[in-house]
Automatic annotation (TrEMBL):
The keyword Transmembrane helix applies. This is Fatty acid desaturase domain-containing protein. PANTHER family: DELTA(5) FATTY ACID DESATURASE C-RELATED (PTHR19353:SF19), FATTY ACID DESATURASE 2 (PTHR19353). One of its GO terms (biological process) is lipid biosynthetic process. It comes from Bradyrhizobium ivorense. Residues 51-287 form the Fatty acid desaturase domain. Residues 312-341 are annotated as: Disordered.
Amino acid sequence: MTALRMRARDFLTDDELIAVRQRMTWKGIALIAHAWALILGAIALVAWWPNPLTYLLAVAIIGSRQLGLAILMHDGAHGCLSADEKTNLFLSQWFCAYPTFAETRSYRRYHLQHHARTQQEDDPDLVLSAPFPITRLSYRRKFFRDITGQTGYQQRRAQLLNALGPSEWPLSRRAEHFWAKLGPQCVANAVLFAGLAAAGVWWAYPLLWLVPLLTWMMVITRIRNIAEHAVVPDSSDPLRNTRTTRANFLERLFIAPYYVNYHLEHHLLFYVPCYNLPRVHRILSRSRYADRMEVQPGYSAVLRLATARPDREDRPGQLVNSARRSRAGAKVNADQNAGGF
């Protein structure tokens, strides 16, 4: 089956299309700077006032900004951080992708297949949405694996093993393969560690960079994946095979940074920078297509839809299947930098 398509001029005037397509380098830089400012501010808060509450708050803020960096990397994969491709790739790679152990170009090759085949049988991201709806018990197990770092560990382990290559390769070939897969990421993280150490807070790298990356970022990445494509009404309708989720201030701070909740609009116009998606949403909401759009009032509403199967249908065998899907998803995510969007 092939999904239907919509043309931008079905709901935008020429002037509106020109306006929303405009890519401003300073805006891309400003969003990246905002993410890093919140990260460094959260680290400074714990260094200044160390206690369990400030630490947990910092983990949640930093984890959400790590997802924010992944979102901005995703914008870079679509060429939206800057109109100049060299600047776009530099910003996306060194300030967004590499610090979170991702890579823009490989993500771009994989991700464009998702846009071309959204919710179809050959959509590479279908594994992220196909299992839903699930039971609340199943989601609790997934949440526990995410928040305790098990999911993040599996993803990073798969990524490391992939970068090391087959054990039968000679050392020189394995080293070359590792550098191609993870070299710049290691450099970026070494620079981050050195900077924190120079500031006298070397402990912030393991406790306030790696811990959020392996825990809270995994929790909200799963929520984001669910919100974008799980339990959508019509896999072939571009207004209903993905979803926009309204986000309040706290959801934008801790779960859905940098306009990632406007996913329906992004799929319709994937060349539009994230900061222009709210404008696209307003235009669509005033159009004749407004009633067809799949929009949910918040992330709690989406999770209720995604966990609508009765708990009595939860079976022991589902634990095995869930684990298999988790491992498959971990490999996909490790190889393709977390998929989705």
